[in-house]
């Protein structure tokens, strides 16, 4: 099963890539905090021209990412939206493996207008999960950014046909505007996507080394923000989300681009990182695909080795069974915590 999960994730990434032509090692780091905190930035950088999307990011949303202001007295309905990844291309196929995309819908009762809000990759999942190995660059080159997209309309058929469209809450226009301000701040400071959740094992109380930062995490953060604002969630719907896990012992910090791939870098480690990512390149033939799959199996399962790029730094994961797993687990809607 773990082989199937790895193939599924890799296949989604390769499907995106196949449509295209082809970011100081500190040995005295303080005692590491787990999970490693996701790094926030003071602004969102411009994307490198080398990075090109298969499909335009947020094609019908506002170019500057703005969210309309609602009247304070408006009454806003909130909807949970979920559909299989790439549903527009493959229908419900990936939904059979619980590979789902999450979003939030809103409806203004004063205007009758509907809106969709989602957070996803600027350059598709493959570029956020694996780097490009460019001949002219010493370090692996990452095209990894994720951002919020807000646009008018809820595509009922898209969400209902193979997924979920259900009302989960209500709020005032004033609360919506407060949420919108928070969304803008969250979007400017949380700029990159993270596919993997890394932990010790699938058991009930594992040590978590790294958390994912993806579409479902954006939905969770938004729901929690709404609950903090006093918005109640009354839906009895069981809310399940896709999570992609790697299982490993305690990770080891390796370094960043400068300390590994710079002039004074560790050439042995640099070579090993490139060798690790080489099989994840888009294959040009069925033969290449099969060879690469065997190489990945050898590194991850037999050699029990994985290099993770997180916060613009590399970590080495000593992999352990079951190595990799896709789950579709319940994460309940938040509750308002009333002060005593």
UniProtKB/TrEMBL annotation:
GO cellular component, one term: lysosomal membrane
Highest taxon listed in the record's lineage: Eukaryota
Catalysed reaction equations from the record: 2 1-octadecanoyl-sn-glycero-3-phospho-(1'-sn-glycerol) = 1-octadecanoyl-sn-glycero-3-phospho-(3'-octadecanoyl-1'-sn-glycerol) + sn-glycero-3-phospho-(1'-sn-glycerol); 2 1-tetradecanoyl-sn-glycero-3-phospho-(1'-sn-glycerol) = 1-tetradecanoyl-sn-glycero-3-phospho-(3'-tetradecanoyl-1'-sn-glycerol) + sn-glycero-3-phospho-(1'-sn-glycerol); 2 1-acyl-sn-glycero-3-phospho-(1'-sn-glycerol) = 1-acyl-sn-glycero-3-phospho-(3'-acyl-sn-1'-glycerol) + sn-glycero-3-phospho-(1'-sn-glycerol); 2 1-(9Z-octadecenoyl)-sn-glycero-3-phospho-(1'-sn-glycerol) = 1-(9Z-octadecenoyl)-sn-glycero-3-phospho-(3'-(9Z-octadecenoyl)-1'-sn-glycerol) + sn-glycero-3-phospho-(1'-sn-glycerol)
Family the UniProt entry places it in: Belongs to the CLN5 family.
Biological process according to GO: lysosome organization
InterPro entries: CLN5
Protein's name in the database: Bis(monoacylglycero)phosphate synthase CLN5
Gene: CLN5
Pfam families hit by this protein: CLN5 (PF15014)
């Amino acid at each position: 099963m773990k082989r199937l999960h790895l193939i599924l994730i890799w296949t989604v990434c390769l499907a995106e890539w196949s449509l295209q032509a082809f970011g100081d090692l500190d040995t005295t780091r303080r005692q590491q905090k787990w999970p490693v905190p996701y790094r926030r930035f003071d602004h969102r950088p411009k994307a490198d021209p080398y990075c090109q999307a298969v499909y335009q990011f947020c094609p019908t949303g506002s170019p500057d990412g703005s969210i309309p202001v609602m009247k304070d007295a408006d009454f806003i309905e909130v909807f949970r939206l979920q559909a299989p990844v790439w549903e527009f291309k493959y229908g419900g196929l990936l939904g059979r493996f619980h590979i789902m995309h999450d979003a939030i819908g809103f409806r203004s009762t004063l205007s009758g207008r509907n809106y969709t809000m989602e957070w996803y990759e600027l350059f598709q999942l493959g570029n956020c999960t694996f780097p490009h190995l460019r001949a002219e660059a010493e370090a692996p080159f990452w095209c990894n950014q994720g951002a919020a997209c807000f646009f008018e309309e809820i595509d009922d058929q898209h969400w209902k046909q193979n997924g979920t469209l259900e009302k989960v809450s209500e709020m005032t226009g004033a609360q919506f505007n407060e949420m919108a301000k928070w969304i803008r701040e969250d979007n400017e400071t949380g700029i990159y996507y993270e596919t993997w959740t890394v932990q010790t094992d699938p058991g009930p109380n594992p040590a978590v080394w790294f958390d994912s930062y993806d579409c479902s995490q954006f939905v969770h953060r938004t729901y929690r923000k709404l609950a903090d604002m006093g918005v109640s969630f009354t839906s009895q719907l069981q809310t399940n989300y896709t999570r992609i896990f790697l299982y490993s012992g305690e990770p080891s910090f390796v370094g960043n681009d400068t300390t590994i791939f710079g002039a004074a870098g560790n050439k042995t480690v640099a070579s090993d990182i490139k060798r690790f990512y080489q099989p994840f390149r888009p294959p040009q033939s069925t033969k290449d695909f099969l060879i690469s799959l065997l190489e990945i199996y050898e590194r991850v399962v037999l050699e029990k080795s994985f290099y993770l790029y997180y916060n613009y730094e590399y970590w080495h994961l000593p992999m352990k069974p079951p190595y990799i797993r896709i789950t579709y687990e319940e994460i309940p809607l938040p509750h308002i915590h009333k002060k005593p």
